[in-house]
Amino acid sequence: MDNFASHIGEVKAKHGVFSFCHFDKYIGLAMREYGEFSEIELSLMSKFIMEGDVVFDIGANIGAFTVPLAKKVGKFGEVYAFEPQKLIYDILQDNVNKNNLNNTRVFNVGVGEKEEELELNDIDYSKVGNFGGVSFKYESSSFTKNIKDKKYKVKVTNLDKLMEIKKCNFIKMDVELMELDILKGGRNFLKKFRPILWIENHESYPNKINKFLLENNYDAYWAYSRVFNKSNFFINENNYFDEIATLNTLAIPKEDNRFSMDKKFDKITDFYTKPILVLEKTL
Fold first, then answer.
1. CA 61, CA 66: separation in Å to the nearest integer?
2. Chain segment 132-150, per-residue pLDDT in tens
């Protein structure tokens, strides 16, 4: 941690100037090699975000989505970005500052089902790892190298503690199996604001997330996208991610009829329907 600054790079990327972790094998690698991260997913998500919206980016990491979403909502919109890892949070805050995003607030907290204080392993950021794979919910040593016997405490809040904001139009969640916890801890928030939700999900386990959404009057859709974008900003043809893809659930309140859903989104019609993984549906 003392030499962490030596492990940070900077890149003039598609959506602005970004600091990133050299040894992050997903977001850092993508920023360095492509000048963007998961751009196909970002493009799909952005269709449901409008100028003037208030957006929550929960699990913001270094801000690869935070920054472009803040630019999209514009000066009359706001972005609230949440990142529990202290050093990743510091990079996120730096990226918000260097891109002059006056409409963005950054919080060094986790979001879950209830207010509490949890422990994270102290990560060795000088070793190659997936720093976006760190979790409160399961052992993440397969994703990162930890500094032996060192932990630090992280504050966790929930959505229902954030009811005083004026509005919330869209929430993106990428929190390594904490997604359902966030939903449960935000029942009143979701009832009050009825935001559109973009939730990291997985096709291999029974889908309690989708069950929750359908029971709370949301229409739910699978949104599947490759991490590698062949039309990336740096026009780099080298695919370091092979066929790795992200699977998300897009949830739209039933009363929100602004959007015409195209073939890129498979509607979820029961609690346990698994997605039709048709890669050609992605951009």
1. 9
2. 656 565 554 444 555 556 6
